[in-house]
Amino acid sequence: MTSLATLFGLIPMALALEAGSEAYAPLARAIIGGLAVSVVLTVFIVPCAYYLIHRRREKSTSHPSGPAGAVTTTH
């Protein structure tokens, strides 16, 4: 939330709408780019990587005979 608020707050600075703001526009654009990458990594990439690693570990520790404590009956 804080990063997104910062991104939206820097948009007027990045557009250089006012007199004298041309000097700060590249700085604002660089900050927006860095925060955008950070938000994408934090919100999408890290949880997906965690899920994939967790799923792989779960598969390697599971037993082929089924879940632990499962009762099997034969007829």
Lay out the secondary structure.
Elements: H1 2-15, H2 25-61
Helix pairs in contact: 1-2
Output the keywords.
2 helices, mainly alpha, single chain, 75 residues
Quick structural summary:
By secondary structure, this protein is mostly helical.
Folded structure, characterized:
Helices cover 68% and strands 0% of the residues. It has 75 residues and is mainly α. The model has no long low-confidence stretch (mean pLDDT 85). It is rod-shaped. It has helices at 2-15, 25-61. The chain is built from 2 helices and no strands.
Largest beta-sheet details: none
Share of residues in helices: 55-70%
Strand tally is: 0
Task: State the separation between the terminal residues, measured CA to CA.
Answer: 59 Å
User: Approximately what portion of the residues adopt beta-strand conformation?
Assistant: under 5%
User: Cα-atom Rg, whole angstroms?
Assistant: 25 Å
**Computed structural class:** mainly alpha
Query: What global shape is seen?
Result: rod-shaped
Per DSSP, the total helix count is: 2
Order of helices and strands: HH
**Integer average pLDDT:** 85
List unreliable stretches of 5+ residues.
none
